[in-house]
Amino acid sequence: ENLQGKVAFITGGASGIGLGIAKACAKHGMKVVVADARQEALDEALKWFKENNYPARTIKLDVTDRPAYERAADEAEAAFGKIHVLINNAGVAAGSGPMQEASFKDWDFIVGVNITGVFNGIKIILPRILKHGEGGHVVSTASKGGLITVGMSGLYCTTKYAVAGMMETLATDLQGTNVGASAFCPGPVTSNLGFSSAQVRPAGLKNDSEKLPPPPPPGSGPMPDWSKIFMSPEEVGERVVRGIRRGDLFILTHPEFREGLIARNEAILRAVPDEPLNVERKNVLKTFGSL
Ligand code: NAI
User: Fold this and answer.
1) Which is nearest to 11 in space by CA: 147, 133, 153, 116?
2) Is 239 helix (H, G, I), strand (E, B) or coil?
3) Best exposed site among 86, 165, 253, 267 by fewest CB in 10 Å?
């Protein structure tokens, strides 16, 4: 896919991974609309595009606010004509720890942004992409935690499995069009997720008392050097652009998760009943596209 001159609309684009994707899109000749809920972060982000003379526009947007999302889409089209690439990247973390200890407020907050926010993007922007007929792509930032779970972050992983599922289904729905869909599933990347999640959390969804994360268990040794483990937003941004170009269904970052992915898929395959196939059933399932 030739991205030169095309327009990308990136939610949560003012920080971390979204900003890395926005920079990569700009470097590959795209015009960039950076949408984010935090105005200060938008102002800070815009500096880089101005300094480097890249065409970019920032829009303050909370992806859970549907009327505001419609207006943001109109504003993006007024600025750059058409939107070709939608990056549903805005996301938050909430309710870490054992799942049953998370609050209903944690659930409502994280589901609202991480799942409903992504659907809002699909519902509001995708029809505009399909309508102009020039082709395009939808990428949603799920996570490695949307393919294999991480302990003590059940709410987060649940939302990220949903995002991966949405993109897999969307890719099937879009077959035969010139619009593609990808689930972006990064491992650890340097970002401001903890800080910005607290900042964007509406007052009505804040917990009465915020639990502090538990201290590391005694004898667990020194903390790892995060800078060595976390990838940079710029690096993962380039991987996203490459994935869009190739039309990849999944965009992954860390080869270290290969074994975990194999183990999960093997567990699923082991659960497939070891019984003879019912040919009639198989044919019917095929007609419904479930095979
Ligand atoms: P970040 O905090 O640096 O960036 C997220 C941005 O989204 C922030 O600027 C924030 O203001 C914005 N945002 C939050 N809620 C919003 C809303 N309702 N409407 C509009 N904007 C909103 O964090 P990061 O890590 O770059 O997060 C980006 C995405 O990557 C998230 O979906 C996150 O779940 C996902 N992710 C992050 C990983 C990491 O290691 N940093 C790993 C896997 C996935």
Assistant:
1) 116
2) helix
3) 267
pLDDT tens-digit series, residues 91-128: 999 999 999 999 999 999 999 999 999 999 999 999 99
Ligand 1 pocket test, pick from 19, 36, 116 with the greatest ligand atom count within 8 Å of Cβ, gives 36
Continuous segment of H or E residues that includes residue 248? none
Contact 11, 36 (CB under 8 A): yes
Nearest atom in ligand 1 to 190's CA:
41
User: How far apart are the C-alpha atoms of 291 and 288, rounded to whole Å?
Assistant: 8
Question: Is the CB of residue 191 below 6 angstroms from any atom belonging to ligand 1?
Answer: yes
Return the residue matching tokens 């993006």: 76
Residue 2 Cα distances to 16, 25, 99, 280, angstroms: 25, 12, 44, 44
Question: 7-205+228-255: what CATH class?
Answer: alpha beta
CA-based diameter of the chain, in Å? 65
- Interface pTM (ipTM) of the complex? 0.99
Residue 34 in tokens: 């950076």
Please state the domain extents for the chain.
7-205+228-255
At 143-160, the pLDDT tens digits run: 999 999 988 999 999 999
User: Could you say which residues of the chain have pLDDT below 50?
Assistant: none
